[in-house]
Amino acid sequence: MNKFRNYMSVAALALAVSLTGCSVAGTASSTGQAGTAGTGAQSAVTVASVEEDTHFDSDDLSWDAAEEVAVTLADSASTVAAGSTSDAVKIDGGTVTISAAGTYRLSGSLSDGQVVIAAGEEDVVRIILDGVELSSSTGSPFVVQSANEAIVYLEEGSTNTIEDAASYADQGTDAPNAALYSLADLTIAGTGALTVSGRYNDGIVSKDGLVLAAGNVSVDAADDGIRGKDYTVLLDGAYTVTAGGDGVKADNDTDEGRGWLLVSGGALTVKAGDDGVKAVTQLTVAGGTVTVEESEEGLESAHIAVSGGTVSVTANDDGVNAAGGSSSTQTGSQTGGQGGGMGGGETVGDYSVDISGGDVTINSQGDGLDSNGNATISGGTVVVNGPSNDGNGALDVNGGLAVSGGTVAAAGSAGMAVTPATSSTQSGVQVTFGTAVPAGTTIQLADSSGQLVATFVTAKQAASLVYSSAAITAGEEYTVYTGGTAQVMAGVGEGSLDGARQQGTVTAGEYTAARGPGDRR
Q: Are 201 and 226 in contact (CB under 8 A)?
């Protein structure tokens, strides 16, 4: 009896999933597999349009198990199972080459070998990894040379490993440079586990588009962890990346509309020697969880948008950084008043940070939330634990920082403090301490009636706090307290003024000048 494995159509899921960054994930069974999808906000990318804007097609994740070709890997003794006849599988010593569309179930191990996909330009090739160990002493053990799309499917309950050589015999311009390397569109799916060790350079690379639809995947790479070219999309699954270079990225900087990255579901955890999550044109988080535990710069792209999900970034330099190679559009005002952007003649480029939902937490040694253009916050919660040195700020916006909703708590040094621009429709306050307060300090705000309106606990030393929420009314006076009680160890939460000490008052909407007044548009 034939069995069919399938993912629910992404388009069909759009009927059941609201466009707010939610995701739906299923588990494999003997009768089928439920689909995975999420919403996105990269240009026109949404849960309903993922199949239009990427190579991903749910139909490609449906197949007749009776038509699978079973291949058992073994050193110099790989075989095609009896009854799984296929002229498309060629075995030559430690190399297994697949040359046609179809579904191929791999098991076993190659201690020094290679699986090569060299199919037609219109062929969709599915490779099921069902307990596979691949390694090579001379290069990449898994290479997609040609295909319309390669799908690496991780069989439920299986554990798989791919490890490349520490040095490659072929180091030409177009030669593979990753443990799992594809010149074609690449999809990783299934609920099994995959460990990738990129000892030479990168871990997983697609020189076209890359969709991470599911899987429990761990990548450790000498340079970049996971790299797509045209786009990189995380729909679901758990991906853990440790990289000497960038963690996860999309790096096409030549083709218009390419080089973008979308997280709409799943969980991504990154430790990177350079940037954590990076895209050339647009980086969007619409759902799921993104945790950058170590990085130089946490999130970086020309345009960064967060509309849902949870983002937590730790960075030695800037936490969330809208920057890149775009040309400038205007120059920041030097006479516009205090806050709103560092200005001081700084260039305002075609860059942006747009936060409309989700939870964003930043811990940075450099600037916390940094845009070389403009920034908008209209929803969600943004907590910045910024630098202690006066050469950087918790907020650094060359143009205007427009706040119209959500909750913003940005703590850090006082010397370069940036505050919301006059274009903001939601007010806020700026608290500056004569002496920096230590980590773990509870800072609270109460209105003129004594009603508590804000509780914030510092994660590190801070001399300044910029706070904005719907509870703050422009022109109203608020009393600043330290101490009392808080129900959170760090960040924004509930609290009480029991035992708190009054420090002074601030007036909402009245921001003091930092060094280099900026654009107050």
A: no
